[in-house]
Design goal:
single chain; 187 residues; alpha+beta; six-stranded mixed β-sheet
Amino acid sequence: LGKWFVYRLNDPRYRDKKKGKQIGQEYNLNRTTMDVAAVTDIKSVGVEKSFRVVPKEPRQQFTQFDTHELQMEMSFPFHRKDIEDDMGNVKKDAHFYDLQLGKVEIYSTQGELILKKIDEHLKELQEKNADEYEKAKNEVIIVVATVTVIENWYENARNYPRNGLFLVKWIDEIKYLHGERSIYRKE
C-alpha cells in the first residue's frame, strides 16, 4: 500500500499437462494467470515474484518527493474534541475521518501545531477585537494537510477501522471555511 508493485501469480494447477490439454493451450510462464483460473478447485495461489514499477535509483538525491510513497493533500474540519484531551494535550489517538481513506491518524507533533496555531490566532483576535473573536469562535476552521500511508500499515490493516492506515505527515495550511482567511500557511 503506497508503493507501486506489480505481482505475478503462480498457479500450480496450470503446469499440469492434462489441464493444458483440457483448455487447449500449452504452459506459458508469462501468461496471465487469471485467464484460466477456475474458482471451484483452488488449492493455493501465492505470489511468484513482485516487480517494483517505480525503481529505486541509487544516484537519486533524497527529497520528500523522491521517496516513491503515496502522498496526497487532504482537508478536514477542525474539531477540538478529536485532537485535544481533557487536560489540554494532544490525544494519543488523535484522528479525523475521510470518506475515502477512513480514519487518518494525527501524531502529536502535527496535533500540537494545529492546536497552537488556532489558539494563538483566537487569543490575538480576543485581544484586538472582541466582536470578531465571537464570530471567529463559531466559524468552521479547515486544516489542509499532506497525508501518507502509515509505516506499519499491514499491522494496522488487521485492526482496521480501529487503527487508521494513513497519517498526517505535515500541515500545509489552516484557514476559515468562509472567506478563506488563512490562520497558518506552511513556508
